[in-house]
Design brief:
Distance between the termini: 85 Å
Number of strands: 0
Low-confidence stretches: none
Order of helices and strands: HHHHH
Shape: rod-shaped
Largest sheet: none
Mean pLDDT: 83
Strand content: under 5%
Radius of gyration: 34 Å
């Protein structure tokens, strides 16, 4: 069991991570910035959360609105990216199908099949088959 009011170590006395946690929890409400001796990633995140807790109602509403705007922008970006990837995939498939149709038509033409039949079977125009 830990009692924060009884934790009285000074910054230079903090030897363990537990000491650092207890110091941070006890003094978070009075800190304006994260002390350098607590400059670790986890303590930075905790400090940021503590800073949000100190905001006035108006500041909190502004903060939440900015978060919503950021998340909305990220959502639009991700949707556009997915849509672009799907469009690129569909375009790639269509190009692949066209290439295959051209290869098939060329092979049929070399076999001497009628151009009209080749065009009908591959979905190409007569002019496209004639150019092969």
């Amino acid at each position: 069991m830990i009692s924060l009011p009884l934790f009285n170590k000074q910054p230079e006395e903090l030897k363990t991570v537990m000491d650092q946690w207890l110091y941070l929890l006890k003094h978070l409400s009075t800190m304006d910035r994260l002390p350098t001796f607590l400059d670790k990633r986890i303590f930075g995140l905790i400090f940021e959360i503590g800073e949000i807790g100190k905001l006035t109602e108006e500041e909190l509403m502004s903060y939440e609105a900015s978060l919503k705007h950021k998340r909305d922008a990220e959502s639009v970006f991700n949707s556009a990216k997915k849509s672009g990837e799907a469009l690129g995939h569909a375009k790639g498939l269509a190009e692949g199908e066209r290439k295959k149709a051209l290869e098939t038509a060329k092979a049929f033409k070399e076999m001497g099949l009628p151009i009209a039949d080749i065009a009908k079977g591959t979905g190409l125009s007569v002019e496209e088959v004639e150019k092969l």
